[in-house]
Protein backbone atom coordinates (compact mmCIF):
# COMPACT_ATOMS: atom_id res chain seq x y z
CA UNK A 1 0.00 0.00 0.00
CA UNK A 2 1.37 3.41 -1.01
CA UNK A 3 -0.04 6.67 0.34
CA UNK A 4 0.82 10.34 -0.09
CA UNK A 5 -0.13 12.31 3.05
CA UNK A 6 -0.53 15.44 0.92
CA UNK A 7 -3.41 13.86 -0.98
CA UNK A 8 -5.48 11.76 1.45
CA UNK A 9 -8.45 11.78 -0.93
CA UNK A 10 -6.50 9.41 -3.18
CA UNK A 11 -5.52 6.90 -0.49
CA UNK A 12 -6.28 3.29 -1.47
CA UNK A 13 -8.71 0.97 0.28
CA UNK A 14 -6.66 -1.22 2.66
CA UNK A 15 -6.40 -4.87 1.62
CA UNK A 16 -5.28 -6.39 4.97
CA UNK A 17 -5.85 -5.86 8.68
CA UNK A 18 -2.32 -4.49 8.95
CA UNK A 19 -2.94 -1.90 6.22
CA UNK A 20 -6.22 -0.98 7.93
CA UNK A 21 -4.35 -0.37 11.18
CA UNK A 22 -1.67 1.73 9.48
CA UNK A 23 -4.23 3.80 7.61
CA UNK A 24 -6.26 4.34 10.79
CA UNK A 25 -3.22 5.79 12.55
CA UNK A 26 -2.50 8.14 9.64
CA UNK A 27 -6.12 9.29 9.55
CA UNK A 28 -6.10 9.92 13.30
CA UNK A 29 -2.90 11.93 12.86
CA UNK A 30 -4.51 14.06 10.16
CA UNK A 31 -7.51 14.66 12.44
CA UNK A 32 -5.18 16.09 15.08
CA UNK A 33 -5.35 13.34 17.70
CA UNK A 34 -3.31 14.63 20.63
CA UNK A 35 -2.31 11.49 22.55
CA UNK A 36 -1.23 8.01 21.46
CA UNK A 37 -0.64 4.83 23.48
CA UNK A 38 2.39 2.78 22.44
CA UNK A 39 4.00 -0.27 24.04
CA UNK A 40 7.64 -0.88 24.92
CA UNK A 41 9.31 -3.76 23.09
CA UNK A 42 9.75 -5.99 26.14
CA UNK A 43 13.44 -6.63 25.49
CA UNK A 44 14.39 -5.84 29.09
CA UNK A 45 11.16 -6.65 30.89
CA UNK A 46 7.42 -6.98 30.51
CA UNK A 47 6.04 -4.77 27.68
CA UNK A 48 4.24 -1.77 29.14
CA UNK A 49 1.99 0.92 27.67
CA UNK A 50 3.37 4.44 27.39
CA UNK A 51 1.35 7.56 26.55
CA UNK A 52 3.03 9.93 24.10
CA UNK A 53 1.75 13.33 23.04
CA UNK A 54 1.45 14.57 19.51
CA UNK A 55 3.96 17.32 20.26
CA UNK A 56 6.57 14.80 21.43
CA UNK A 57 6.16 12.64 18.33
CA UNK A 58 6.17 15.65 16.00
CA UNK A 59 9.35 17.05 17.61
CA UNK A 60 11.12 13.71 17.16
CA UNK A 61 9.96 13.31 13.55
CA UNK A 62 11.01 16.80 12.46
CA UNK A 63 14.40 16.50 14.18
CA UNK A 64 15.10 13.28 12.25
CA UNK A 65 13.96 14.88 9.01
CA UNK A 66 16.20 17.89 9.57
CA UNK A 67 19.18 15.70 10.49
CA UNK A 68 18.84 13.46 7.42
CA UNK A 69 17.66 16.07 4.92
CA UNK A 70 14.27 14.45 4.29
CA UNK A 71 11.94 16.51 2.09
CA UNK A 72 8.29 16.57 0.91
CA UNK A 73 7.81 14.10 -1.91
CA UNK A 74 10.65 11.83 -0.78
CA UNK A 75 9.71 8.15 -0.92
CA UNK A 76 9.84 6.17 2.32
CA UNK A 77 9.61 2.41 2.80
CA UNK A 78 7.79 1.63 6.05
CA UNK A 79 8.59 -1.99 6.91
CA UNK A 80 8.89 -2.02 10.72
CA UNK A 81 6.02 -3.07 12.97
CA UNK A 82 3.70 -0.07 13.35
CA UNK A 83 2.47 -1.41 16.70
CA UNK A 84 5.76 -0.24 18.25
CA UNK A 85 7.56 3.08 18.35
CA UNK A 86 10.08 2.45 15.54
CA UNK A 87 7.37 1.62 13.04
CA UNK A 88 4.81 4.17 14.10
CA UNK A 89 7.42 6.94 14.01
CA UNK A 90 8.10 6.09 10.37
CA UNK A 91 4.43 6.92 9.77
CA UNK A 92 4.72 10.16 11.74
CA UNK A 93 7.81 11.22 9.78
CA UNK A 94 5.98 10.55 6.56
CA UNK A 95 2.91 12.50 7.65
CA UNK A 96 4.83 15.48 9.02
CA UNK A 97 7.35 15.76 6.18
CA UNK A 98 4.95 14.86 3.38
CA UNK A 99 6.83 11.77 2.20
CA UNK A 100 5.18 9.22 -0.08
CA UNK A 101 5.01 6.08 2.06
CA UNK A 102 5.00 2.50 0.84
CA UNK A 103 3.76 0.49 3.83
CA UNK A 104 4.47 -3.25 3.92
CA UNK A 105 3.93 -5.78 6.68
CA UNK A 106 7.21 -6.62 8.48
CA UNK A 107 9.17 -9.53 7.01
CA UNK A 108 12.70 -10.90 7.04
CA UNK A 109 13.44 -9.34 3.64
CA UNK A 110 11.25 -6.30 2.98
CA UNK A 111 12.85 -5.70 -0.44
CA UNK A 112 12.27 -9.23 -1.76
CA UNK A 113 9.05 -8.27 -3.55
CA UNK A 114 10.53 -5.17 -5.21
CA UNK A 115 12.42 -4.96 -8.51
CA UNK A 116 16.02 -3.87 -8.12
CA UNK A 117 15.90 -1.90 -11.39
CA UNK A 118 12.54 -0.13 -11.21
CA UNK A 119 12.18 0.48 -7.45
CA UNK A 120 13.41 3.65 -5.80
CA UNK A 121 13.14 4.77 -2.17
CA UNK A 122 14.79 7.73 -0.44
CA UNK A 123 14.53 6.56 3.16
CA UNK A 124 13.83 3.50 5.27
CA UNK A 125 14.40 2.04 8.73
CA UNK A 126 15.30 -1.62 9.26
CA UNK A 127 16.24 -3.97 12.06
CA UNK A 128 19.73 -5.49 11.70
CA UNK A 129 18.43 -8.91 10.68
CA UNK A 130 16.41 -7.40 7.82
CA UNK A 131 19.41 -5.53 6.44
CA UNK A 132 21.67 -8.56 6.76
CA UNK A 133 19.10 -10.77 5.00
CA UNK A 134 18.78 -8.28 2.14
CA UNK A 135 22.54 -8.10 1.59
CA UNK A 136 23.18 -11.84 1.93
CA UNK A 137 20.20 -13.36 0.11
CA UNK A 138 19.26 -10.71 -2.48
CA UNK A 139 22.50 -8.88 -3.33
CA UNK A 140 20.91 -7.28 -6.41
CA UNK A 141 18.70 -5.23 -4.03
CA UNK A 142 21.84 -3.32 -3.15
CA UNK A 143 20.84 -1.10 -6.08
CA UNK A 144 17.71 -0.06 -4.16
CA UNK A 145 19.70 0.67 -1.01
CA UNK A 146 22.29 2.69 -2.91
CA UNK A 147 19.64 5.12 -4.19
CA UNK A 148 18.55 6.16 -0.69
CA UNK A 149 19.36 9.37 1.16
CA UNK A 150 19.62 7.50 4.46
CA UNK A 151 19.05 4.07 5.99
CA UNK A 152 18.40 3.68 9.71
CA UNK A 153 19.24 0.42 11.51
CA UNK A 154 17.90 -0.09 15.02
CA UNK A 155 16.03 -2.27 17.47
CA UNK A 156 19.12 -4.36 18.28
CA UNK A 157 22.89 -4.03 18.20
CA UNK A 158 24.64 -4.23 14.83
CA UNK A 159 27.20 -7.02 14.66
CA UNK A 160 30.74 -6.59 13.31
CA UNK A 161 29.74 -8.85 10.42
CA UNK A 162 26.81 -6.62 9.46
CA UNK A 163 28.96 -3.50 9.73
CA UNK A 164 31.40 -5.12 7.34
CA UNK A 165 28.55 -5.87 4.91
CA UNK A 166 27.41 -2.23 5.15
CA UNK A 167 30.65 -1.03 3.57
CA UNK A 168 29.31 -2.01 0.14
CA UNK A 169 26.32 0.33 0.52
CA UNK A 170 26.82 3.76 -1.05
CA UNK A 171 23.97 5.44 0.86
CA UNK A 172 24.62 6.57 4.46
CA UNK A 173 23.70 3.85 6.98
CA UNK A 174 23.15 4.84 10.61
CA UNK A 175 22.75 2.75 13.76
CA UNK A 176 20.19 4.34 16.04
CA UNK A 177 20.01 4.73 19.81
CA UNK A 178 16.70 5.35 21.50
CA UNK A 179 13.62 3.79 23.07
CA UNK A 180 9.87 4.23 23.38
CA UNK A 181 10.32 6.68 26.26
CA UNK A 182 12.48 8.95 24.06
CA UNK A 183 10.08 8.60 21.10
CA UNK A 184 12.48 6.62 18.90
CA UNK A 185 16.14 7.56 18.41
CA UNK A 186 17.97 10.48 20.01
CA UNK A 187 21.44 9.63 18.64
CA UNK A 188 22.95 8.15 15.47
CA UNK A 189 26.18 6.32 14.62
CA UNK A 190 27.40 6.20 11.02
CA UNK A 191 28.19 2.61 10.02
CA UNK A 192 29.75 3.11 6.59
CA UNK A 193 31.60 5.50 4.33
CA UNK A 194 33.94 8.33 5.20
CA UNK A 195 31.89 9.31 8.25
CA UNK A 196 32.00 5.86 9.84
CA UNK A 197 32.30 6.10 13.62
CA UNK A 198 32.50 3.93 16.72
CA UNK A 199 30.53 6.53 18.68
CA UNK A 200 26.92 7.70 18.80
CA UNK A 201 26.34 11.41 18.27
CA UNK A 202 23.32 13.01 19.95
CA UNK A 203 20.92 14.91 17.70
CA UNK A 204 20.61 18.69 18.04
CA UNK A 205 18.98 19.85 21.26
CA UNK A 206 19.34 16.49 23.05
CA UNK A 207 20.94 16.81 26.49
CA UNK A 208 22.76 13.81 27.95
CA UNK A 209 24.37 12.95 31.26
CA UNK A 210 25.22 9.96 33.42
CA UNK A 211 24.23 8.90 36.95
CA UNK A 212 26.42 7.36 39.65
CA UNK A 213 26.24 3.95 37.89
CA UNK A 214 27.50 5.43 34.63
CA UNK A 215 24.03 5.04 33.09
CA UNK A 216 22.76 7.53 30.53
CA UNK A 217 19.95 10.02 31.14
CA UNK A 218 18.28 11.96 28.35
CA UNK A 219 16.37 15.24 28.11
CA UNK A 220 14.90 16.59 24.88
CA UNK A 221 11.80 18.05 23.28
CA UNK A 222 10.73 14.48 22.46
CA UNK A 223 10.76 13.64 26.19
CA UNK A 224 8.71 16.76 27.00
CA UNK A 225 11.95 18.15 28.47
CA UNK A 226 11.67 15.61 31.27
CA UNK A 227 14.73 13.56 32.23
CA UNK A 228 14.52 9.93 31.11
CA UNK A 229 16.85 7.70 33.11
CA UNK A 230 18.10 4.58 31.33
CA UNK A 231 19.91 1.45 32.48
CA UNK A 232 22.40 1.77 29.61
CA UNK A 233 26.01 2.07 30.74
CA UNK A 234 27.86 4.51 28.49
CA UNK A 235 31.16 6.26 28.15
CA UNK A 236 30.63 9.97 27.51
CA UNK A 237 33.37 11.35 25.26
CA UNK A 238 32.40 15.00 25.68
CA UNK A 239 29.78 17.03 27.51
CA UNK A 240 29.71 19.71 24.81
CA UNK A 241 27.68 19.75 21.59
CA UNK A 242 27.69 17.59 19.62
CA UNK A 243 27.67 15.10 22.50
CA UNK A 244 29.20 11.73 21.65
CA UNK A 245 29.12 8.51 23.62
CA UNK A 246 30.09 4.85 23.43
CA UNK A 247 27.48 2.29 24.43
CA UNK A 248 29.04 -0.20 26.86
CA UNK A 249 26.07 -2.35 27.91
CA UNK A 250 23.16 -2.51 30.33
CA UNK A 251 23.46 -2.21 34.09
CA UNK A 252 20.85 -4.94 34.55
CA UNK A 253 22.83 -7.51 32.54
CA UNK A 254 26.06 -7.22 34.55
CA UNK A 255 27.45 -10.62 35.57
CA UNK A 256 29.27 -11.05 38.91
CA UNK A 257 31.81 -13.84 38.46
CA UNK A 258 34.17 -14.45 41.36
CA UNK A 259 33.44 -10.95 42.67
CA UNK A 260 34.38 -9.31 39.36
CA UNK A 261 31.64 -7.41 37.53
CA UNK A 262 31.56 -8.17 33.81
CA UNK A 263 29.56 -6.44 31.08
CA UNK A 264 28.39 -9.28 28.76
CA UNK A 265 27.91 -6.99 25.76
CA UNK A 266 31.66 -6.36 25.65
CA UNK A 267 32.38 -10.11 25.57
CA UNK A 268 29.79 -10.57 22.82
CA UNK A 269 31.48 -7.89 20.74
CA UNK A 270 34.89 -9.54 21.06
CA UNK A 271 33.35 -12.93 20.21
CA UNK A 272 31.80 -11.61 17.01
CA UNK A 273 34.92 -9.66 16.03
CA UNK A 274 36.99 -12.82 16.50
CA UNK A 275 34.67 -14.87 14.29
CA UNK A 276 34.77 -12.19 11.58
CA UNK A 277 38.58 -12.11 11.69
CA UNK A 278 38.79 -15.92 11.45
CA UNK A 279 36.44 -16.18 8.47
CA UNK A 280 35.17 -12.90 6.97
CA UNK A 281 33.01 -14.72 4.40
CA UNK A 282 30.99 -16.80 6.87
CA UNK A 283 27.57 -15.71 8.10
CA UNK A 284 27.88 -15.05 11.83
CA UNK A 285 25.75 -17.07 14.23
CA UNK A 286 23.49 -15.27 16.66
CA UNK A 287 24.98 -15.42 20.13
CA UNK A 288 24.94 -13.79 23.53
CA UNK A 289 26.84 -14.05 26.80
CA UNK A 290 25.16 -14.86 30.08
CA UNK A 291 25.94 -15.93 33.64
CA UNK A 292 24.84 -19.33 34.95
CA UNK A 293 24.90 -20.33 38.63
CA UNK A 294 28.23 -21.72 39.75
CA UNK A 295 29.15 -22.96 43.24
CA UNK A 296 32.69 -21.57 43.13
CA UNK A 297 32.30 -18.35 41.13
CA UNK A 298 28.69 -17.46 41.97
CA UNK A 299 28.11 -17.00 38.24
CA UNK A 300 30.15 -18.49 35.42
CA UNK A 301 30.36 -16.85 32.00
CA UNK A 302 28.82 -18.90 29.18
CA UNK A 303 28.56 -18.25 25.46
CA UNK A 304 25.09 -19.11 24.13
CA UNK A 305 24.91 -19.80 20.40
CA UNK A 306 21.84 -20.34 18.24
CA UNK A 307 21.46 -23.63 16.33
CA UNK A 308 25.00 -25.04 16.07
CA UNK A 309 28.09 -24.71 18.18
CA UNK A 310 31.00 -22.88 16.66
CA UNK A 311 34.14 -24.99 16.39
CA UNK A 312 36.29 -25.71 19.42
CA UNK A 313 39.18 -23.90 17.72
CA UNK A 314 37.06 -20.78 17.19
CA UNK A 315 35.92 -20.91 20.81
CA UNK A 316 39.54 -21.11 21.97
CA UNK A 317 40.40 -18.01 19.91
CA UNK A 318 37.46 -16.19 21.52
CA UNK A 319 38.63 -17.22 24.99
CA UNK A 320 42.17 -16.04 24.21
CA UNK A 321 41.02 -12.63 22.92
CA UNK A 322 38.68 -12.08 25.88
CA UNK A 323 41.45 -13.02 28.32
CA UNK A 324 43.87 -10.62 26.62
CA UNK A 325 41.47 -7.69 26.93
CA UNK A 326 39.50 -8.30 30.14
CA UNK A 327 41.31 -10.97 32.14
CA UNK A 328 40.53 -14.54 33.22
CA UNK A 329 37.26 -13.88 35.03
CA UNK A 330 35.63 -12.56 31.84
CA UNK A 331 36.52 -15.64 29.75
CA UNK A 332 33.51 -17.79 28.77
CA UNK A 333 33.92 -21.11 30.56
CA UNK A 334 31.43 -23.01 28.44
CA UNK A 335 29.68 -22.87 25.08
CA UNK A 336 25.99 -23.84 24.87
CA UNK A 337 23.87 -24.26 21.73
CA UNK A 338 20.08 -23.86 21.70
CA UNK A 339 17.88 -24.72 18.70
CA UNK A 340 16.24 -21.29 18.49
CA UNK A 341 16.48 -18.10 20.52
CA UNK A 342 13.22 -16.89 22.01
CA UNK A 343 12.39 -13.42 20.70
CA UNK A 344 10.32 -10.45 21.84
CA UNK A 345 7.45 -9.22 19.62
CA UNK A 346 9.88 -6.79 17.93
CA UNK A 347 12.40 -9.50 17.07
CA UNK A 348 14.96 -8.86 19.81
CA UNK A 349 16.55 -11.80 21.62
CA UNK A 350 14.77 -12.51 24.91
CA UNK A 351 17.82 -13.51 26.91
CA UNK A 352 15.99 -14.38 30.12
CA UNK A 353 13.47 -16.64 28.42
CA UNK A 354 16.18 -18.35 26.38
CA UNK A 355 18.33 -18.96 29.45
CA UNK A 356 15.28 -20.33 31.29
CA UNK A 357 15.08 -23.05 28.61
CA UNK A 358 18.68 -24.04 29.31
CA UNK A 359 18.13 -24.22 33.04
UniProtKB/TrEMBL annotation:
Record keywords, A-Z: Ligase
Gene3D superfamilies listed in its UniProt record: 3.30.300.30, N-terminal domain of ligase-like
GO molecular function terms listed in the Swiss-Prot or TrEMBL record: medium-chain fatty acid-CoA ligase activity
Alphabetized InterPro entries for the sequence: AMP-bd_C_sf, AMP-binding_CS, AMP-dep_synth/lig_dom, ANL_N_sf
Membrane-spanning residues: none
AMP-dependent synthetase/ligase domain residues: 35-188
Protein's UniProt keywords contain Disulfide bond: no
Pfam families the UniProt entry points to: AMP-binding (PF00501)
GO biological process: fatty acid metabolic process
Key word ATP-binding present: no
Superkingdom, taxonomy of origin: Bacteria
Family statement drawn from the similarity comment of this UniProt entry: Belongs to the ATP-dependent AMP-binding enzyme family.
Descriptive protein name: AMP-binding protein
Amino acid sequence: MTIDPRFPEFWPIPATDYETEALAFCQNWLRGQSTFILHTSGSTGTPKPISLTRDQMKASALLTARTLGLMPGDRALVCLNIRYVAGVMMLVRGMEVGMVMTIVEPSGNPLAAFSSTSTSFDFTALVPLQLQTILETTPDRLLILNRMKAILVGGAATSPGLEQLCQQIEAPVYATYGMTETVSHIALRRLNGAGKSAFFTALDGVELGIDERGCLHITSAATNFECVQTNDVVELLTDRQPIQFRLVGRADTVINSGGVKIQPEQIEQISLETLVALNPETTLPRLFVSGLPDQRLGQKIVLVVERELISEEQFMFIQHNVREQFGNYAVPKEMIAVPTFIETPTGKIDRNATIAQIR
